[in-house]
Amino acid sequence: MHVKSAAATLVALVLLALGVGATATAGGTALHLGGSWAGTYNGAVSGTFTLTWTQTNGRLKGAIKLSRPSGSYAIGGKIVRGKIQFGVVGVGATYKGSVNAAGLKMSGTWASGPGGGSWSAHKLLTVTKIKLP
Q: What CA dihedral angle connects 89, 95, 101 and 103, to 10 degrees?
């Protein structure tokens, strides 16, 4: 295999790992938000969260683990043109925001009965080992 071919293959694998070529779009760029994310929320209640979800077209479904109130809860949401909305039914919280063009960061505001605030998250990437000749 030539060096140029190996480099092109490596670039293609990196783009695939980053989720380029999926279904939702932000400014014309395909986004894939399925997978695991970690983030923080501040305001009326502050803490950290991790979430894992799957994406089918623009629909998101999965689970979120909150530090406050502590626990794991089902979540569902949608992504349309780089704008995201999802809810945590078990705690009555809704999240709205935007996703960056690469689909690796998102942030916005959250609201629930006791108040609201801001949140941000980043996608947790997995490293795929490849063996080059």
A: -30
